[in-house]
């Protein structure tokens, strides 16, 4: 089969590989729609998780089942399925402990384009099919289905980890697709004010549609000062980091109240350390909590987020700004994510 792969750090290209084999609990799918991710960019061009050679990229897509293992109960060839970016081993001890995304070791539930070939191939392998696939709901378009792979669950995880309550003031740092879903999730959770940090006009418009009450443009000055000015110097109750870099933690600690919570769902692609400001962290005793996590993955989450789409509580398809047709457009779409054109939020390739 053919696939679009990471050839080495900073290098990508089309390769030929053997079609994946199906285990008794597994499924083999062919892609119906694909979406590149900024994580692919970090993986290839920053070498964020180390060097990879001839590893097919991609972890966002909608597929059609072409083969299932003998022990798969709920799926059959011909089924159109949602495919989560994170596909844990659900019989692992880590899953039993409540952290399935780390089944087999830290981040090991993230298999596509990390541990094994991703979805940018003629065929792709899904482990534990009954636990990791979900049927594509009738009437859901393929582009929206792609957003459920990663963008929706990652943004929503940021909201869950931040533990947003009714009336909270929330700052979402970064309003790419993950940050936009965090804005949407914060609104559903009952945040009274949502400050969205970003500058690209297309993202700003969607952030407002999703519930942002204030846009903070880092080009207009220090974002911490802007947040403190808007809150009378008190800061916000919760911060969701969905963009930025290692220094963003410094800013988040400075803008959050004592006993506030900071959640990070941003893929930190470079550097060795993050910075925590000592005094603003209450010299270690300010009860300012920081947590970073990987999206849950699995079938249940796919079905839950699909239900939110059906009920019109979220509208992730609104983030799709560019649609390509044909498998050969994967490279063009990925480079678009790398270059971040001003009118871009998310590209999707329909096959």
Broad structural category? alpha/beta
Our Rg estimate from Cα atoms comes to 20 Å
Question: Cα distance, first to last residue?
Answer: 15 Å
* Average pLDDT level: 96
Largest sheet: 7 strands, mixed
Shape: globular
Q: Which percent bin holds the helix content?
A: 25-40%
Strand tally: 16
Low-confidence stretches: none
The proportion of strand residues reads 15-25%
Order of helices and strands: EEEHEEEHEHEHHEHEHEHEHEEHEHE
Please characterize this protein's 3D structure.
The chain is of the alpha/beta class. 27% of the residues lie in helices and 24% in strands. The chain has helices at 38-46, 93-96, 129-132, 142-147, 151-162, 177-189, 201-210, 223-230, 248-255, 299-310, 330-339; strands spanning 2-8, 11-16, 27-34, 55-56, 61-68, 80-83, 124-126, 134-135, 169-173, 193-197, 214-216, 236-241, 256-264, 289-292, 320-325, 346-350. The strands form three sheets. Strands 3, 5, 6, 7, 8, 15 and 16 form a seven-stranded mixed beta sheet that branches. A six-stranded parallel beta sheet has the order 11-10-9-12-13-14, with helices on both faces. Strand 12, helix 9 (248-255) and strand 13 form a beta-alpha-beta unit. The radius of gyration is 20 Å and the shape is globular. The mean pLDDT is 96.
């Amino acid at each position: 089969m053919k696939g679009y792969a990471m050839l080495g750090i900073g290098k990508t290209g089309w390769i030929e590989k053997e079609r994946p084999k199906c285990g008794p609990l597994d499924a083999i799918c062919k892609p119906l729609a694909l979406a590149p991710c900024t994580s692919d960019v970090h993986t290839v061009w920053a070498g964020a998780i180390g060097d990879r050679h001839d590893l097919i990229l991609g972890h966002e897509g909608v597929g059609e089942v072409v083969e299932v293992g003998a022990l798969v109960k709920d799926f059959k060839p011909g089924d159109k399925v949602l495919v989560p970016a994170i596909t844990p081993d659900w019989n692992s001890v880590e899953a039993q402990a409540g952290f399935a995304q780390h089944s087999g070791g830290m981040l090991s539930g993230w298999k596509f384009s990390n541990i094994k070939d991703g979805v940018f191939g003629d065929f792709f392998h899904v482990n534990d099919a009954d636990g990791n696939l979900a049927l594509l709901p009738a009437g859901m378009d393929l582009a929206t289905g792609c957003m459920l792979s990663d963008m929706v669950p990652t943004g929503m995880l940021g909201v869950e980890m931040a533990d947003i309550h009714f009336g909270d003031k929330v700052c979402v740092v970064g309003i790419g697709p993950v940050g936009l879903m965090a804005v949407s999730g914060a609104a559903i959770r009952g945040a009274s004010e949502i400050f969205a940090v970003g500058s690209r006009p297309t993202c700003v418009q969607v952030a407002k549609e999703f519930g942002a009450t204030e846009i903070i443009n880092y080009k207009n000055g220090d974002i911490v000062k802007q947040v403190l000015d808007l809150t009378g110097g008190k800061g916000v109750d919760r911060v969701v980091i969905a963009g930025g870099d290692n220094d963003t933690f410094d800013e988040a600690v400075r803008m959050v109240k004592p006993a506030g919570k900071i959640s990070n769902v941003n893929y930190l692609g470079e550097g060795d350390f993050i910075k925590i400001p000592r005094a603003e962290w209450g010299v270690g005793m300010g009860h300012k909590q920081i947590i970073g996590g990987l999206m849950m993955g699995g079938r249940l989450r796919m079905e839950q987020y699909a239900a939110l789409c059906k009920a019109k509580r979220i509208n992730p398809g609104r983030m799709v700004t560019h649609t390509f047709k044909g498998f050969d457009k994967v490279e063009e779409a990925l480079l678009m994510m790398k270059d971040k054109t001003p009118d871009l939020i998310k590209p999707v390739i329909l096959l």
